[in-house]
Amino acid sequence: MSRLFSSSQVLGSSGSKMASFGKVTHCIFDMDGLLLDTEPIYERILGDLLKSYSSPYPRATRMKVMGTTEQRTCSILVQDLKLPCTVDDFLAQFRRNQLLHLGQAPLLQGAERLVRHLHQHKIPIALATSSGADSVEVKTKNHQELFELFNHKVMGSSDPDVKEGKPAPDIFLVAASRFPDKPAPAQCLVFEDAPNGVTAAIAAGMQAVMVPDERVEEDQRKHATVVLRSLEDFRPEDFGLPAFT
């Protein structure tokens, strides 16, 4: 997946540091579009579903649902596009189709290297995804060993403790509270691709590393702590974490 950047917050592959950041001790990762390249698959699933209702899938709507829970995604689509079905009906179709197609999602550039590096250096890591448990099981089935390195997983669409999905901060606050040592929000660094996820992280009092899709506009990137082309460009030492060797 290609990435485009013009933000002054970008850290390039040259390794030059362009800002100062707070030291962190724990890391929390989004999954879709950040660790796993699922977004093109979701595009096809939702696009095909909407075609069955003779509905377009406008770009503004695609941006609006990015990073939201399954329930919220379907609610936005049904209401904004005025689909002739209930949210529950659309959600059932969406879940059925995603379980059929998401199992082959590949890892994105730099994802495995970073997760393994942090685990090797005993940096506590957690997953905080808007997906539900069934969906996560399907999407990670070809990468089980890697995802077992996470201390815990918070799955927003099926976790009762996540009262509000992104852009609300709930999922990241729940993720932080489940680390054994219960770090303060300021000690946690969030990795995200979606504007809704970055908004949630900042609202939670955490710093946010953003690796956005090329379609994300410049003004939707400005609230991130730092914007990267890929996880390959992340410099752990900038946040007080062990550097790559």
Automatic annotation (TrEMBL):
It comes from the Eukaryota. SUPFAM superfamilies: HAD-like. GO terms for molecular function: phosphatase activity. Pfam families: Hydrolase. InterPro entries: HAD-like_sf, HAD-SF_hydro_IA, HAD_sf, PGP-like_dom2. This is 2-deoxyglucose-6-phosphate phosphatase. It comes from Anopheles darlingi.
